[in-house]
């Protein structure tokens, strides 16, 4: 009876299932990556032989099996609220979750045992993704809300991501490269920016006095189409010309950082977490712009992968932690306020971004670079380990305010 009650509570709302699975995946993905890095960059043991390239596996796990779990939980919760639509049906999100988790588990096994298992794993994963798409589009198409800008962007990005995952099954090197680059610029960037554009001004307006909501349509056009152009240039090997689009995107993102009230947000740490996470978007795009200009004039790749990690760890991961923390608190019936340990945890997480950026600088020796790689992975596990400890039980408990969900 107790197990049945816990399962009923756990499946009472999509965010419970997907956020919990995402929290577990935050740890598993980095444990696997740390195991691989230790083999390659230490003398403890020899490099591990996986059934596919560790860089390809890392890209799939981080881009497509980690962030999407949180994205699905968030969108299945917010679509009905954004568009005043019907709630996502329980059998849809439970079925999707089951297939996605089966695919992820089998992917880890396949990395050790057989490439054929990886193909089956991705196929199961795509089946779960298909159900998510169907459930979200069902809400989208039935809703009468005229403003569907943000939901349109996120829905298209999820469809594009499905195609980008599917092409990985071909094993073609060029298509796998498309999947990795497209996953950042055609999938994660549009979704994270659309959610930021929609939610940061909304949350800020409820807290900051005399706040003016700024949601310019030009920003959506700039970032979404800018990401597409960036992906095309990167795929074509034209990194020296990325500044033509990355610099306008950087200036647009930094403008929004100012207009959305970064400085005023520090009065409320939970809100400041969102604003700090968004700040990294402008910083990352500036890194890309400077690197592109230097490459154009000197033919040197100044920052290597530093801009990429400023974007993926700085913006995507920080924003994910901030947004999921807020949704978890709000939908558990708790007060929308983070305690000091969680605030310090978020600030500490920024050290991972900085450490990962420093590891890409040209003046860093190979030995120090290796140590920084390992340090970043350990810090990730420490931060998200504490975050998991703080919030994971919430998804198995009934709401403290007695409301459903």
First and last CA, distance: 20 Å
Counting DSSP E segments of at least 2 residues, the number of strands comes to: 0
The CATH superfamily is identified as: Cytochrome c oxidase-like, subunit I domain
CATH fold annotation: Cytochrome C Oxidase, Chain A
Which of globular, elongated, flat, extended, rod-shaped describes the shape?
globular
Supply the number of structural domains. Answer: 1
- CA gyration radius, whole angstroms: 21 Å
Q: How much helix is in the residues?
A: over 70%
Give helix and strand order, one letter per element, not per position: HHHHHHHHHHHHHH
User: Low-confidence parts, pLDDT < 50 over ≥5 residues?
Assistant: none
* The level-1 CATH class: Mainly Alpha
Name the CATH architecture: Up-down Bundle
| Helix count, DSSP H or I runs of 4 or more residues | 14
Per DSSP, what share of the residues sits in E-state strands of 2 or more residues?
under 5%
